[in-house]
Amino acid sequence: MSMVLFASVVRVRDGLPLSASTDYEQDKGVQESKKYLKSLSKKLSQFPDRCTLKTGQYNINFTSSLGVGYMMVCTENYPNVLAFCFLDELQREFIVSYDTKRINSAVRPYSFIEFEDNFIQKTKQRYNSPRSLSTKMNLADMQTEIKLRPPYQLSAADVGTVNGFSHPSSSIYKGIAPNQMLEPVTLAGIVSCLLSLLCGGLNLIRGVHAIESILQNEDEDFNYVVAFFLGSTACLYQCYLFAYCTVWRNIKSFLAFALICLCNMYLYELRNMWQILFHVTVGAFTTLQIRLRQPQGKAPDYNV
């Protein structure tokens, strides 16, 4: 029989349990899965916002948003779309019920245990009888979303130590989830990309002209060529960072901006102050747009 067996809400930064369903299940496999869930809850910040871990005959699914993780144990044949719809409902209700300040200031475990009686238990019962679910619209939306951005598949090695046994954690997730999508492009972002491409093109043209000058006059400084091409590369790389998710994306954008500044400082004799100011300003503007366009998490829907 496919069903939801256990659910909990935890704080992402330290894995503090905030609320959980009442534990009536004594099956050894379920208890083992809950030990994995407890270990995972302390590492949620290292994983994508939607993951699945298979533990024998049971699955652990979880999502995280706004510093709170929503976790569950279900049978292995429980439909994925129902599992994440269940977690999505927990997320929406918890966000509406409790403010961030109270969540962050919680010290004792299960500070929001009333959420179990008020919502978790009732929702678990509904999802254990799928025919009684009142709407199919959310299921269809979730099914589409899972196809576009499937849950990251964890392995036992990602969990680390369970029951005193250490598992190798070399495969533990530390970057961006596969198929992770960025937030929608804004007009300012498009303008910054176009300006960066323009700066990159100008640097490239000046670099080619600098090579021609060197061929005609051996006294010319080849370092100018290097500075032009490095500046062009940094501009184009900022466009790439704006368009795609990469590991340490924000840090890379700052390094690219720093390289743009250094190149323009070196080219001080070949450019007037307005040209240098233009290149540096475009670099700073693009860096800001990269910082503002973050990976897209599961947006809570307050109106459902």
UniProtKB/TrEMBL annotation:
The keyword Endoplasmic reticulum applies. One of its GO terms (biological process) is endoplasmic reticulum to Golgi vesicle-mediated transport. The chain crosses the membrane at residues 185-205, 225-244, 251-268. Residues 8-119 form the Longin domain. One of its GO terms (cellular component) is endoplasmic reticulum membrane. Pfam families: Longin, SEC22a_C. It is found in: Endoplasmic reticulum membrane. It comes from the Eukaryota. Keywords: Endoplasmic reticulum, ER-Golgi transport, Membrane, Protein transport, Transmembrane, Transmembrane helix, Transport. It is a multi-pass membrane protein. Belongs to the synaptobrevin family. May be involved in vesicle transport between the ER and the Golgi complex. This is SEC22 homolog A, vesicle trafficking protein. It comes from Lepisosteus oculatus.
